Amino acid sequence: MPNLFEEIKKPFVSPVPVGTVITIPPVSQVCILYESIGTDSYYFDEAYIDIVTPGGTTTIAGENTGGTLNADTPVQYAIVYRGIAVHASAGSIPIKENFRYTYYIQAVENKLPLKKWTCTEVINRLLDIAEPLRQGEKPRFRLQGVNDDGSYEAGSQAELFDTIYAPEFSMTKQTLRECLQQVGEIVHGEPRLTPRKDSTGEWYYEVTYDLFGQGEAWKHAHMPHVLKQVVQNANSYATSIDSAVENIVNVKGAVTEPYAGGGKSMRAVEEYVRVTEDNIYVFH
Known about the structure:
Elements: E1 5-8, E2 16-17, E3 20-24, H1 27-30, E4 31-33, E5 40-53, E6 56-61, E7 67-71, E8 76-89, E9 95-108, H2 119-128, E10 141-143, H3 157-161, H4 176-187, E11 189-197, E12 203-211, E13 241-246, E14 270-275, E15 280-283
Parallel strand pairs: 2-9, 10-12
Antiparallel strand pairs: 1-4, 3-7, 5-6, 5-8, 8-9, 11-12, 13-14, 14-15
Helix pairs in contact: 2-4
């Protein structure tokens, strides 16, 4: 059967936001017949538009009649153009062609993207999960400038880093220092710990970044270093087991229920253990 249409237009876009009012053009503006010339004429014998929605189907009759569709729910809608087109020519039998064209339109809700994390939020998250906490306990680590109520002091590093968006981090089996150093690559600084007292007089560790390129003297430069000396003699040489150990459970061990007699452990760290006949030594 010959095609009697010169052009079939695509009047719709998909998807559309929920609440969009869609204008539906008439059949004659979508299914364009060939122009009638001389004794050859083209016309519609029947023309309909079916608007299919979750509530049912609405039909519009007539080649020059259009309508509207309110896409008020996040579902798929269908608009169907159908009918019979005719090609009549003098001295011959008219040619009739059934046509049907369906357009699908998906309405979607406009979901806002997730909030981007700032470097301050990443650091706060790291410090919150650095060690397991029971209900009512406060983290022992806090970024410089974070108050007891979670607000940020003006001019503090917490306020400064809160203006820097953080990329996605992948942190597995790292110590807290290594995680903070990874964030330090973004803020261009080296993390340091300083013992402080909060408003209630309790001690905590303040995390401060020594920012690169600054003219300030490093306040830790003159602090005494921790020194541990290990002596080995002929009696103990080659008489022990050396092994790398992960997830050492110590007196601050993982929370054990019931808590009475239990303990807490730090998060996953790598230690070095030496087992001898007389004792066990853990190096870190």
